[in-house]
Amino acid sequence: MSYTDAQVSSAVAAVEKYRSSETGEVGAALAVVGLSSERVAKEAQIRDDMIRVAHRAGASLRQLAEVSKLDRKTVTAIVGATVRSHD
């Protein structure tokens, strides 16, 4: 697999965003934690969008809580949240 210069530059910038001035093992660990946090946030955003879609399609809060492994209070908050545009 090959990558463009822009893709490589983007990856390097993302890693450097979290490494700060740290080098070596600490810097690498910080980069992994930061990138993982971004991914988790994006996946939660997608999950919440799909919970709202499923609810509009007729899924109950109980069903949504079971499949998402969230409590009903959390699912209710997600369903009732005003959706904002994603970056």
Q: Give the tally of β-strands.
A: 0
Given helix and strand content, the structural type is: mainly alpha
Could you state the order of secondary-structure elements as H and E? Answer: HHHH
How far is the N terminus from the C terminus?
27 Å
Q: How does the major sheet shape up?
A: none
Q: What count of helical segments does DSSP give?
A: 4
Categorize the overall geometry: elongated
The pLDDT mean sits at 91
Short description:
The protein has 87 residues and is mainly alpha-helical.
Question: Explain this structure to me?
Answer:
There is one protein chain. The protein has about 90 residues and is an all-alpha fold. It has one domain (about 5-80). It is about 75% helix and about 0% strand. It is built from four helices and no strands. The protein has helices at about 5-20, 25-55, 60-70, 70-80. Helix 2 (about 25-55) crosses helix 4 (about 70-80) and helix 3 packs across helix 4 (about 70-80). The mean pLDDT is about 90.
